[in-house]
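Suppose you are handed only these lines of text.
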Amino acid sequence: MKVIKVKSQHEGAQIALTYLKDSLKSGAKTLGLATGSTPLAFYQAIRQSDLDFKGLISINLDEYVGLGAKDSQSYAYFMQEHLFQYKPFGASYLPDGLAQELSSEIVRYDKLIDDYPIDFQILGIGQNGHIGFNEPKTDFNTKTHLVDLSESTIKANSRFFDSIDQVPKQALSMGIASIMKSKRIVLMAYGAQKAQAISSMVEGPVTVDVPASILQTHDDVIVIVDDDAASLLN
Ligand code: GLP
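From them, the structure of the protein bound to GLP can be written out as follows.
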């Protein structure tokens, strides 16, 4: 794991962009994308760049069950709003939160990830160390799966909803095994509320209690953190 400390999200975004450009130069064809507040500065940097994604594929990490692309809280809506309308890809995939048969949707998503191996994966991290929506205790071998969101995740994500009751209780998420297959992973974290998760991920044991800790065993992970998120690192 390479840990890079930055002074601002803007600086973090520029560094992430440099790694993305390097991957594209090496022939990256599929980008794994994340939602949440963390990648916003990165998506802004992409929007302001001259990058063109028309020849590329994007695959997102996750989606809430019960929300569709027209719901403003859905991750499909988020991606359209912050990236896809400005930088369209050849094809963009997210799990379908409105799928009638979640089991077939899971099969479809795993096949997509097999067909389009992810070259460059962007990640944020949950306060409890989750990546995508892979909550603590998720088996490291998991592929796409249905997740019962933890209380702490529901609480953390309620800031995007009018009330905590509106936060969906379930999500579809790419699994940890799929994330680990990505050629390069860039994880960003900003703010003191991420300090414990970052310390456990970087310096703690590799354990299912901290899903992100498995990233210690991947050979191309770049962690971009501000001073607050890095404050508990030795
Ligand atoms: C959600 C997403 C994750 C994201 C996390 C942190 O749970 N499923 O992919 O990393 O939130 O979000 P934020 O960046 O807003 O702190």
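What can we learn from it? The longest strand covers residues 184-189. The chain has a mean pLDDT of 97.
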